[in-house]
TrEMBL record:
SUPFAM superfamilies: Protein kinase-like (PK-like). It is an enzyme of class 2 (transferase). This is N-acetylmuramate 1-kinase. Residues 36-259 form the Aminoglycoside phosphotransferase domain. Pfam families: APH. GO terms for molecular function: ATP binding; transferase activity. Transmembrane segments: none annotated. Keywords: ATP-binding, Nucleotide-binding, Transferase. Signal peptide: none annotated. Its EC number is 2.7.1.221. It comes from Methylomarinovum tepidoasis.
Amino acid sequence: MQALKMARILARSPTQTADARLEALLTWAPVAFTHWTPVAGDASRRRYFRLHGDGQRWIVMDAPPPESPQRFAAVAGLLGRAGVLVPQILAQDFERGFLLLEDFGDRTCLQALDAESADGLYGAALATLLRLQTRLDPKTAALPAYDRDLLRRELEIFPDWLLKRWLDLPLDTALWERTCEALVESALQQPRVVVHRDYHSRNLMVLDEGGLGVLDFQDAVVGPVTYDAVSLLRDCYVAWPPERVALWAEDYRRRLGRAGLVVDAPTWQSWFDRMGIQRHLKAAGIFARLWLRDGKPGYLKDIPRTLRYVAAACQGDAALAPLGDFVSATVLPQVEARL
């Protein structure tokens, strides 16, 4: 029976495959499907495939080591209890790294965004984020801490992968140490909440039945309150006029205040800007690493936008202005010359 099922799977596949893990995943899938199609994945080693059968659709995830489907399931349960829409897990084989998931469709928030829809979509995204940050107790969430060591390790991705390995650019050590200290201290000063850690327009799905579904949450941590807000509003994949972003960010600060987490506007703005610099330095480094280590060039085009965020946020911050000058005068021209 197993051999017959495998023959049928290969016969109805869109392409011939010699992928042993994919064959095992499709053989395991505990639903009656007639054909399958690949689904665009994220920047990890996880892979996703859509199963089609009798008017129904499902998603299967292949999460090979070191990915952790157990972590995915645990965080899904945590977020679901807070009222966040996450895919239901329909079946799992944790030992092999296989999950069968509810299908949220293909329409990302990024695809739905335009000048007219932005206020409504960002309003919904911020409402979802508010539930995540105010309905979950960071002390009992059983998530890793976004601590000094992790913040610093993430920052080092930028000089290691983007400057050294991709651009072969030197970096002033003293300038970098001052930058890292300022960014890490700002992050550690902030109230601690549950942090999705990749909360942006590609990971928010516009659902047919209404609302926004949330994906790619398995790396959640307990960390700074501004992290997810800046991920969303200064998205590496889409940019909006600064004045519009400022209105959305202030709206979220006020929502937090009404929920009991009061932060004055100047402090919020400083935290927001510095958190964005930390995140965008990390993201730019990761985009370079995805190309150099993993052979994924698709993220290279997003590096200039990401670095422009860094340069702009550094302009009004005396401690970080030298980094902004270095990025705008040296790094960005080198990046654009490579693309």
